[in-house]
């Protein structure tokens, strides 16, 4: 039931002050027994919905059973809680989160590119890619081809992006050695390649 909002002007007997200080709370009907009770401002803030601990306990005992959509386990929800939410479909926050992640996997994700990213990761961990990278580094004497810095953390860059030119993925002439900063500054790094070559981007 909704709270019964009243003021001292309404002359409700529960709002009549027993001292000099007027009562500033409200009156609500208990969601278990229906009895009206006075709520202090602090009780309004936490949305106290029961007139006593006994009624609160009764509300917990009165439950409905549901089956979790994620794990299939049975769980119970007090009827008093059901008034505050839509029909429960998960037994816990963990199951709700798992369901949400699974719903956004693969082709259900708005960023889905037809499995291209997965294929890209597989190729980048292959022996052929590691061999290509080492050949590029040795040819360039482990030196960044933009700033001239030698050694340190280096990255092999595909001059023509990995995702858009599959025939050049392991061509040493299509690779160059760059430091991390110079690699990021290229016009084909990350999603900058999308604007240049289209929407099938999967990394360069």
Counting helices, strands and paired strands, the structural category is: alpha+beta
Largest sheet: 2 strands, antiparallel
The strand order across the widest sheet is 1-2
User: What would you call the shape?
Assistant: elongated
Number of helices: 8
State the separation between the terminal residues, measured CA to CA: 60 Å
Number of strands: 6
Measured by DSSP, the beta-strand proportion falls in: 5-15%
Q: What Rg, in angstroms, do the CA atoms define? A: 33 Å
On the 0-100 scale, what is the average pLDDT? 79
Order of helices and strands: EEHHEEHHHHEEHH
Question: Segments where pLDDT lies below 50 for 5+ residues?
Answer: 1-9
Q: Which percent range fits the helix content?
A: 25-40%
Layout of strands and helices, then pairs:
Elements: E1 26-29, E2 36-39, H1 41-45, H2 53-61, E3 63-67, E4 74-78, H3 79-82, H4 93-103, H5 116-124, H6 127-139, E5 154-158, E6 175-179, H7 180-184, H8 192-197
Antiparallel strand pairs: 1-2, 3-4, 5-6
Explain what you see:
There is one protein chain. The strands form three sheets. The chain has a two-stranded antiparallel sheet with strand order 1-2. The chain is an alpha+beta fold. Strand 3 and strand 4 form a beta hairpin.
């Amino acid at each position: 039931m909704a709270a019964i909002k009243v003021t001292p002007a309404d002359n409700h007997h529960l709002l009549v002050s027993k001292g000099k200080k007027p009562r500033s709370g409200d009156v609500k009907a208990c969601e278990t027994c229906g009895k009206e009770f006075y709520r202090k401002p602090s009780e309004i803030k936490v949305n106290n919905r029961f007139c006593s601990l006994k009624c609160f306990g009764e509300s917990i005992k009165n439950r409905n059973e549901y089956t979790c959509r994620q794990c299939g386990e049975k769980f119970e929800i007090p009827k008093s809680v059901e008034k505050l939410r839509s029909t429960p479909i998960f037994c816990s926050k963990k199951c709700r989160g798992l369901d949400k992640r699974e719903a956004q996997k693969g082709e259900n994700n708005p960023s889905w590119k037809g499995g291209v990213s997965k294929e890209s990761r597989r190729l980048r961990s292959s022996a052929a890619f590691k061999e290509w990278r080492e050949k590029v580094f040795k040819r360039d004497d482990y030196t960044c081809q933009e700033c001239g810095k030698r050694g340190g953390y280096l990255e092999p860059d595909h001059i023509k992006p990995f995702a858009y030119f599959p025939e050049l993925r392991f061509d040493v002439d299509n690779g160059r050695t760059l430091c991390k900063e110079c690699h990021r500054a290229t016009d084909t790094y990350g999603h900058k390649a999308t604007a240049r070559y289209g929407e099938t981007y999967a990394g360069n």
